[in-house]
Amino acid sequence: MEKISRKNWALIWVLGMAGQICWNIENSWFNTFVYRKIAPDPSIVAWMVGVSAVVSTFCTFLIGTASDRLGRRRPFIAFGYILWGVFTIGFGVTEFLPKDPLWLAATCVVLADAVMSFFGSMGNDGAFNPWTTDISSAGNRGKVGGALAVMPVFATIFGAIVSGIIIDALDFFAFFTIMGGMVIAVGVLCLFTLRDAPGLAPNRDPRGFWHQFAAVFDYKIVGRNRELFWVFLVMMVYFIGFNVYFPYITVYFTDNLGMDYTLTGVVQGAGLLAASVLTIPAARFIDRGKCGPVIAAAVGCNLLGLLGVSFSTAFVPLLIGVFGAGAGYILVLQALTAWIKNLYPEDQRGQFEGVKQLFFVCVPMIVGPAIATPVINAFGVEKIVNGVAGMVPGNSLFLISGLVTLLALLPLLPAARMEKARTGAAAQP
């Protein structure tokens, strides 16, 4: 088993947390920013989420291919993070654009988010994620997967509590400036501390970059990696359901239930923090090749949690519901992360991060909000937000999300059978 050095563990946590905080800002606070500073219109959020998902996926394919060909992840990580921070600050500038006509302001917000997402995917998805695969092995990827799974949780806790306090005190532009500056600093740090895995070698297709870029779309790859693509389908269905509610959860707590940003952060943060302790026992099952059962239990936990959030308005029941939904999310992400890393073709890890993004980000972040928009418009609550009338999410959004995530059990069945056959065969003397 390849041991991960202390320095690399530190970099995994620093880079992972900085990246996840930035993604959390985009996935939660950008949407809240749109409701408060642009217009309370779920269709703007849907366009912003969908366009950024397409851009992120394309960038991950592009940078994944480039880093595989060069046999280097470091420059893409460092400069990707630096530019990610710069354009996070740039997104905040859209607050000062005129709101008439609204379509122009909405277009600028969507484009600003897309540019920021490109560089975020360059640093995080296209280079950092394959770097974590390069420096790990099958024997410790449950631990790596656990770390990468709890990072979004810690980032959400930070994003919910600390971000809420900063926004309540200083408003959005100062908040985006502070967070962007933090990501820039992490990128600069990587220039001096991060090193590529010693065994990483260039993988150059002699027919050129674009031929190598397109090679991953060959349908024969699906046949050679059947278990991996079943796992990708599990990921896609689960995260479609997740993206039905998650982009709007802060809007729901603040503009429907009437909480301030700080209390919203406490509800989300405390529930998720409690749920994160489950990654420790889960890692033992995952490292023994039990990803399928872990995911099945997590989907059930997620459904119960979303039902709890849907039918609750008081603090404690909401906290319990967030705990259930958060536990399901954490364990699904932990198990999927380790499972997928163990199945990646060794010479195409960067490119397959792009394939993963197609199932993890692109399709879910287009389809999820596309489901949510008519649900909010039909079953939401009409409110005046910052002087503008619009529709805010209702509790039905969480019911729909729970039902969609339950469908992830269908592709999980064949994926779990293949996992059991593969790990059983590997255990044979």
TrEMBL record:
Q: Which residues form a coiled coil?
A: none
List where in the cell it is found: Cell membrane
Principal place of residence: membrane
- Top-rank taxon: Bacteria
Annotated TM spans: 44-64, 76-97, 103-123, 144-167, 173-194, 228-249, 261-282, 294-312, 318-337, 358-376, 396-413
How does this protein sit in the membrane? Answer: Multi-pass membrane protein
- Entry GO CC: plasma membrane
Q: Name the keywords, alphabetized.
A: Cell membrane, Membrane, Transmembrane, Transmembrane helix, Transport
Q: Which GO terms describe its molecular function?
A: transmembrane transporter activity
Major facilitator superfamily (MFS) profile domain location: 1-420
> This chain belongs to which protein, by name?
MFS transporter
Output the lineage of the source organism: Bacteria, Bacillati, Bacillota, Clostridia, Eubacteriales
